[in-house]
Amino acid sequence: MGFKLFIKEHFSFILFELITVIFILSLYWLDGFRNMSTAIYSIIISLILIFSFLASRYFRRQSYLKKITLLPQTMEDALQKNAKTSEHIQTESYLHELYRVYQHEVQVLYATQNRQEKFLNQWIHQMKTPVSVLELLLQEDAPLDKKSVQEEVDRIKKGLEMVLVNARLEKFEDDMQIEQVYLKQIVNATINENKRLFITKRVFPETHIDDDILVASDSKWLKFMLGQFITNAVKYTFEQNKRIIVTATKSDSEVKLTIRDEGIGIPKSDITRVTKAFYTGENGRKTGESTGMGLYLASEICEKLGHQFEIESEVGVGTTITLTFH
């Protein structure tokens, strides 16, 4: 197979050389040269030189030809370095780099698939709780407690929103629309969407944001981020009559939005890891409701939108999240 491939590759070269020899002999013939023995000698010498060149070229490329004509059984077979010529050495380098890029893409795809599968399994397990509570409420003979039903429905809605955001994150750029938005409107809308949680936990929001502060962001994704920060602040404030204070300050080149709570705080050992996927930390284990995905998704969205995101916390005092818009 290797020899046949070599002949096919060089057939045009052999044909060109033969035509060149015949053409030169024809010129001599038309010029009156009639010595046949010299002509035959010239043809033989030309053929010897041509085939000597081809033979040396074939033996130099034999291992490379054998490699590309035999189908590899493993990836190591395909990545062996057998080339001798500069062209084929460059071809092998290209294939090795192509394999590296392919491996990187496969690993990213596998990590994404594994993350999504793990998140979905964890989410399904957590959704069993509100569904079970709703079933128990429906089985009771007493009048239906609408407040309790609404709380469980809200938990399911939040869980569904988290799943949808996780699914859309892979094609974030197709769903992103950057525009100038009024920061106070977004913050107030996010607080109003979570007012039942504030009432249930008896935690009070405070906002100190000027009406005219504009930031360049995507209103939908920004609202999701703020929702994660605010709901976390409320969930991890176990004492009643505490505050969630949202403040915005504007300078010449940036706007800083801070969300400060008076909750239990985050241990120092957890601060650097709370934005990792599925990391619930010490506080998440206390509530038993954390998926470990809220802050991860928020940090991913923040990075894609080009905002900066910082967390400062002290156990027993509270947590401050600072979001910087440039």
Write up this protein:
By secondary structure, this protein is an alpha+beta fold. It folds into two domains: 2-84, no CATH class; 178-326, Heat Shock Protein 90. The protein contains eleven helices and seven strands. It is elongated. 17% of the residues are buried. The model has no long low-confidence stretch (mean pLDDT 82).
Helix-strand blueprint:
Layout: H1 2-30, H2 36-69, H3 75-78, H4 86-139, H5 146-168, E1 179-182, H6 183-193, H7 195-201, E2 203-208, E3 214-217, H8 219-235, E4 242-250, E5 255-261, H9 268-271, H10 281-287, H11 294-305, E6 308-314, E7 318-325
Parallel strand pairs: 2-4
Antiparallel strand pairs: 1-3, 4-5, 5-7, 6-7
Helix pairs in contact: 1-2, 4-5, 6-8, 8-11
Summarize, please.
The protein is α+β, with helices and mostly antiparallel strands and 326 residues long. The protein contains eleven helices and seven strands.
Assign the structural class, choosing from mainly alpha, mainly beta, alpha/beta, alpha+beta, or little secondary structure: alpha+beta
Please identify the top-level CATH class of the largest domain. Answer: Alpha Beta
Share of helical residues: 55-70%
**Structure summary, number of beta strands:** 7
- CATH topology grouping of the largest domain: Heat Shock Protein 90
Gross morphology is: elongated
Which segments are poorly predicted (pLDDT under 50) over 5 or more consecutive residues?
Answer: none
Main beta-sheet strand count, sense and barrel state? 5 strands, mixed
Give the N-to-C terminal Cα separation.
Answer: 63 Å
Reading the helices and strands in chain order gives: HHHHHEHHEEHEEHHHEE
Widest sheet: strand ordering: 2-4-5-7-6
State the domain count.
2
Radius of gyration: 36 Å
The whole-number mean of residue pLDDT values reads 82
